[in-house]
Amino acid sequence: MVYRNLPPLNALRMFEAVARHQSFTRAADELCVTHGAVSRQVAKLEDHVGGRLLVRKGQRVTLTKRGQEYSVVLEKIFNSLANATNESFGIGAGESLNIDLPTTFATRWAIPRLAQFRHEHPQVRLRITTSHNWSELHRNDVDIAVRCGFGGWRQLQEHRLLEETLMPVCSPKLLSGPGPLSIDEMLGFTLLSALTRPDDWSMWLTAAGAKATDYRTGVTFEYSAQAYDAALNGMGVALAQPAFVQEELVSGNLVPISDVVLQSGRAYFIVIPAMNGTNPLIEAFADWLLRSHGDPSRSSGPPPAS
Description:
CATH topology of the largest domain: D-Maltodextrin-Binding Protein, domain 2
Number of helices: 11
Shape: flat
Largest sheet: 9 strands, mixed
Structural class: alpha/beta
Number of strands: 11
């Protein structure tokens, strides 16, 4: 029997992510764990190897000489492991994946996370298109998509990914003091909306108890991402989904201005045409999406017929 004095594997994975990002926070986001969990695992690895691997300077992380050398070796090992897994389980070199996403979901949620999927599956070619049309899912080249709705669609496998939540946000430069604001105060600002989501403000105003819910003045953009950018630049108030403006909320470049947060009942679903459901590459991407949101569970299966 061969005894291998292996370091703690979970700690290795977390240290490799910290070294690659030069940040505990970004590593925690990638691995869907807390900042503290990453810090504890790195400390555990340092105890195991008996030396410092990195130095913390405020929010910055600097690798020691040994830490830098070790991180290079680990990245090669993890890449080799990913390649071996891909080859053994049918996700090999030269395979491609065609993904169709809603525009704002793509730009604000998926694209910032895609580097991790590429890190895990470096040989896979990705082709990403954006649309909101259900007809696009019947194109022969769409392998997997994300759509917003209530679920229960025919001839599709679906996995609930992200609940739809709406709250009004704006740049702090518009405010003279801390919120929350009353409805009347809020309606004194320009309301920013999107053509793809024409009913959001009416739904939110109804939930907030506003007297007038058919509020159509303001500025309307094609997509919500453009409304978010306009809010960042001080144009007015946008109804944002917190998951799509998380970085701006953390930095304070956008602030919530009401205690009313609307849970619409809709959600973003991973949807897969039934004929593609047993493709290991498609399943791997669906699993990665769910892991990126911190939910490893999968509720698969075709929706009921209507």
